[in-house]
Amino acid sequence: MRSTVSRSLRLKLLSVVLLTTSAALVVALVAIVAYDLRTYQQTWISDVSTQAELMGRLSAPALAFDDPKTARENLALLRLRPHVQAAAIYTARGELFASYARPGASPDLPKLPEADGSRVEGSSLVLYRRIVGEREILGTVYLRTDWELLGRAGDYAGIAAAVMLVAMGVAFLMSARLQRVVTNPILDIAGIAREVVGQQDYSRRARKLSEDEVGALVDAFNGMLAEIERRTSELEVANAELGREVASHAQAQQEILRLNAELEGRVRERTAQLESANRELEAFSFSVSHDLRAPLRHIQGYAQMLQEDAGQLDPDTRRYLDLIRESARRMGMLIDDLLAFSRLGRQTLERTSIDMNALVERTLHDVGAGRPGDHRLRVARLPSAEGDLNLLRQVWVNLLSNAFKYSAQRGESAQVEVSGERDGAVIRYHVHDNGVGFDMRYAGKLFGVFQRLHSSDQFEGTGVGLAIVQRIVSRHGGRVWAEGEVDRGATFSFELPAEPAPVPENAT
Amino acid sequence: MVVLSRRRRYRAFVSRLLCVLAFAALIALCVPGQVLAQSPIQAPEQRVKAAFLFKFGSYVEWPTGAFASANAPLTIGVMDADELADELTAIVAGRVIDGRPVIVRKLHEGDPVAGLNILFVGKSVDGSLPKILSPMKGRATLAVTESDGALDAGSMINFVVVDGKVRFDVALAPAVAGSLKISSRLLAVARKVTGPS
Question: Interface pTM (ipTM) of the complex?
Fold first, then answer.
């Protein structure tokens, strides 16, 4: 590769030198040859012309005195000029007067002389020259000589070729040696550049062999190399750091994943534990509630029998029996509620399309509301929804009976409003009353089992109703919440999905 | 084969015929030229002599005193050769020699010859040539004759006819005596030149 490059550069330089040399030589040689040939032509023509003139002068008397012999003798003198092929003298009337032909040359002569002038005929120059005497034309000299322009041009071409050959050879030898001054520094740089690229070794530096532009190139090249070296090392340092960072990052990531997995495992474990505990608890509470009913019924039954049979009991005892019966009744309600609540966890949903207005009407009737003058009740147009009719009825029962219950003390001014709207993917219902309300601090506790904000002396209830509401709504995939203010009333709202998604049966 | 050979023979015949024709044409073209070159038809002797006589004027230098002025005429006297004189008169009409007009004078034996630049003496005065020429000795008059032995009688140029062509001999001694300079170019074409010994 090195040799290819160096050869190419050297070759280019060499060919530039040789081309320049040959161009200069060709121009010079062409100019010289052209000049010489032109000079030769002019000189030759004027030389031949002079000879013709001389011959004319010399032969004028011979013509004048009609002496062809003398004229022939004169012409014969031309043998001293071997390039004269043939010569002739014509009289003024155009008759051939005397002639001469070089031995071996063609003796052909023109029949009639022509006007003054010269022309080239093949390899001969033909020249006519009038002989002028005392204001009159005495005759014409005809000269035919060798015309060596072509031969001369050929000779010159040969000489030029030889000169070119020698000059090119000398130029070649000289430039082959001298070009090293130019090429060596460049080739040095090229070699270093190749090594740098090939080995990625940026610590190499080119030698500075001259103080010219190539020297400047070397400086610039070395400067660039230094810069690259510096940047490369910086980059390597940064890369290493980055690599370390990435490694530690990956490690951290792995740790996080591990912890997550661990956490998930623990969550699953805990959930399973909780679920099982929950199930056990439900089963327990169901069986407890169920098992509690039988003794309670006994208590109730026997208390009633005691009251009916023992008419002679004193009033105090009768009052105690009343209290026992009342407590037993309340306990029965409590157990019923608890059973209902615990059953909710197991029951399957039977979804149907429900006309909410109709449902609310029926519920109002069932809870005994709508007694004339009791409440000012307003039921707005409610959007219909899909769900389990019985369960949703319980929701309404609880919410409406609460509303009536807690606003009852307002008497005539009590107000209950039922409204609803569809909001995108959910259908929302509100039950608003202007009853005792509640403190928003306890809003979170409202929906817990047995959570009561008021004593049962103030308001009757088991404390299970809102827990049931929340359970039903969440089993439908919705949510329930309450807003209220003490003595200013409360608003209970619940949302159901417009297109209910299947909810896991065991959701609690 | 037969056809081929016949065709070949025909071709050979045609080419030979063409050669002959070309040769004939060449001869036809060349021969007249050669004939002309070798023996040009010479004009009548008297006219040639008259022309030569006129041309001598160009090759002879007269002494300064021979002419009255720079453009004084050159006078040629022709003695006892009227035919030649007529020819000469015709030739010189309108022509000049060295810027001088030329005058031809017909003379006869006994006429004065003073003032002549050239004197031609005809053949008819053969016998009395010495008598005519002797007084001319030392004068700047070119004496031209056409008689045998005339040079001995004091003539400077004497016409002779050789092979039917007019030539001339030159005697330098009388010319030198007459201070006449005869051009070497004229001498070059003379048949014979007698030196001034």
Answer: 0.70
